[in-house]
Design goal:
Elements: H1 2-19, E1 25-33, H2 42-64, H3 69-82, E2 102-108, E3 114-120, H4 126-136, E4 141-143, H5 144-152, H6 161-164, H7 167-178, E5 194-199, E6 205-211, E7 232-234, E8 239-245, H8 247-252, H9 255-266, H10 270-285, E9 289-295, E10 300-301, E11 308-314, E12 320-325, H11 334-337
Helix pairs in contact: 2-3, 3-4, 9-10
Bound molecules: aspartic acid.
Aspartic acid is lined by residues 31, 87, 191-193, 211, 213-214, 223-225, 231, 244-245, 247.
Length: 345
């Protein structure tokens, strides 16, 4: 009898905790690179900050209403795909032939399911196609024409070529191709791929990335963004990551997966493993770029080894952060760095 009472008392105490909802948090990026105030007009900077803020707030609203992290990252990416400031969807960089060929990926940290498309044209929201690959096909990655035929089954919105191409990208391609080494050169000084990572109330992590790749690319070049483990990765046990930077390095160093794997193997916090991979491993390899990442407690890290990274977050305490340069939000990781409990598995 006493035992029963004790059990009852214990269950009364435990029940509300078991049902308690976890923290929500989200981060987005709009690319990393040689971003300095003198290259930026005040109008462009304002437009970029506004687009980042709009995307992160829209994703957060999904989480706040009880939506999934998959829905939150999809929503944030769709907004950035439409924003001409970023290298994804409308405003994507141009290939050597002046075309727009886009890559996107999404991953569910709860199930390790993932979907990706590579080298697709005409789709307003490549991220929707990537998500359909995850949910409506037995595959992880579809490419080119096949991916477009697959996407058409779901009546995903298509746009004419001209809709995607901005004057900024036309001028950028012209400038790159005027250089003597243009035939071998990809545009390296400016990456503006978009990405999002989030945790929902159920504790599920998700990551998504969308891009036009690198300017002046040819031969069907595909970077890290749609490659699961390189530019995009999510696992509820550790973290969710979306990357931006020189894709060839991110593929070879399996960056997104490496950040999560280091957490699992060494039980160190995300702030450490993400910083180590971006500022030691990649930097030593001569690779420019950065990541946004979130762990299973909702702690966000956004390290980059370039002069800037377009980024925004709404932390688990509700704090909104929008940054471009290194000096923006100097105390970014104060919440994240202080709490290091990760259980190895
Ligand atoms: N990582 C992308 C790629 O190599 C480029 C970017 O981040 O903007 O395709």
């Amino acid at each position: 009898m006493i035992k029963l009472r004790l059990l009852l008392a214990a269950s009364l105490f435990i029940a509300p905790c078991a049902m308690a909802e976890g923290p929500i948090a989200i981060a987005v990026h709009g690319g990393a690179g040689t971003i300095t105030p003198d290259q930026m007009t005040p109008e462009r900077e304002l437009a970029i900050r506004a687009a980042l803020e709009q995307a992160v707030k829209a994703g957060h609203a999904v989480l706040d209403e009880g939506g999934s992290s998959l829905d939150a990252v999809t929503e944030a990416i769709r907004i950035m795909e439409d924003a001409p400031e970023f290298n994804a969807g409308r405003g994507a960089v141009l290939t050597e032939a002046g075309r727009v060929e886009m890559d996107a990926a999404i991953m569910d940290g709860a199930t390790l399911e993932a979907g990706a498309v590579a080298s697709v044209t005409g789709l307003r929201h490549p991220i929707d196609a990537a998500r359909r690959v995850m949910t409506d096909s037995p595959h992880v990655m579809l490419m080119g024409e096949g991916a477009e035929v697959f996407a058409r089954q779901f009546e995903l919105e298509e746009k004419p070529t001209e809709w995607f191409i901005t004057d900024f990208r036309r001028d950028q391609l012209r400038a790159i191709q005027a250089e003597p080494q243009a035939s071998t050169q990809l545009s390296e000084d400016w990456y503006s791929t978009v990405g999002a990572v989030a945790i929902d109330r159920a504790g599920n992590l998700a990551a998504a990335t969308s891009t036009g790749g690198m300017a002046n690319k040819r031969w069907g070049r595909v970077g890290d963004s749609p490659i699961i483990g390189a530019g995009t990765y999510a696992n509820n046990q550790t973290c969710a990551v979306s990357a931006t930077g020189h894709g060839e390095f991110f593929i070879r160093y399996v960056v997104a997966y490496d950040i999560c794997a280091r957490m699992a193997y060494t039980a160190r916090p995300l702030a450490q493993t993400s910083d180590e991979v971006v500022n030691l491993v990649l930097k030593n390899a001569g690779a420019d770029g950065g990541v946004i990442a979130i762990d299973r407690h909702g702690r966000i890290s956004m390290p980059f080894n370039t002069t800037g990274m377009y980024r925004a977050a709404i932390h688990r305490d509700g704090r909104l952060e929008v940054g471009i340069y290194r000096d923006d939000n100097r105390d970014d990781n104060r919440d994240e760095a202080s709490d290091s409990e990760i259980s190895p598995h």
